[in-house]
């Protein structure tokens, strides 16, 4: 089955890519979740609009990526969460929470580019990785504080 990806799918491709997948994977997983649409000849215009939107969101060049990395690594981001008496959190910190804390401080980051090694379930200082560009990753310092 030939599909046009609308979102980044790990191990498969980026938005706007045309991929060939098995029928069940496309029909039962990718299309219902909105990760892809069926390929048609009229879909070529869709591909162009997806690629144009992706290029506007991407980092402009290597120098811009390095400046974003420096800004992210120089700042310690405060992340207020609900916590119990012993400093244990109610649940875990999600990548959406981290993305909103970072964007609240002025740096816009897509939540799909944030890599959390182990789940954050306690107060204190933690580090997460943000993939700024294909070859540039920034280590971001988070300070999880009680709300």
What would you note in describing this structure?
The protein is an alpha+beta fold. It contains four helices and nine strands, in the order ββαβααββαββββ. It has helices at 23-30, 43-57, 62-74, 95-104; strands at residues 2-5, 18-20, 36-38, 76-81, 88-93, 114-115, 120-122, 124-131, 137-146. The strands form three sheets. The chain has a four-stranded mixed beta sheet with strand order 4-9-8-6. It has a three-stranded antiparallel beta sheet with strand order 2-1-3, with no helix packed on it. The model has no long low-confidence stretch (mean pLDDT 85).
Show the helix and strand layout.
Blueprint: E1 2-5, E2 18-20, H1 23-30, E3 36-38, H2 43-57, H3 62-74, E4 76-81, E5 88-93, H4 95-104, E6 114-115, E7 120-122, E8 124-131, E9 137-146
Parallel strand pairs: 4-9
Antiparallel strand pairs: 1-2, 1-3, 5-7, 6-8, 8-9
């Amino acid at each position: 089955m030939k599909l046009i990806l609308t979102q980044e799918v790990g191990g498969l491709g980026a938005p706007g890519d045309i991929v060939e997948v098995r029928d069940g994977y496309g029909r039962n997983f990718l299309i219902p979740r909105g990760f892809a649409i069926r390929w048609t000849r009229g879909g070529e215009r869709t591909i162009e609009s997806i690629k144009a939107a992706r290029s506007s969101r991407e980092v402009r060049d290597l120098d811009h990526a390095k400046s974003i990395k420096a800004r992210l690594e120089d700042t310690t981001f405060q992340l207020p969460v609900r916590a119990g008496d012993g400093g244990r959190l109610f649940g875990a910190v999600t990548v959406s929470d981290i993305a909103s804390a970072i964007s609240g401080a002025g740096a816009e980051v897509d939540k799909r580019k944030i890599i959390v090694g182990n789940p954050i379930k306690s107060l204190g200082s933690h580090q997460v990785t943000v993939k700024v560009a294909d070859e540039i990753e920034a280590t971001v310092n988070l300070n999880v504080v009680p709300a």
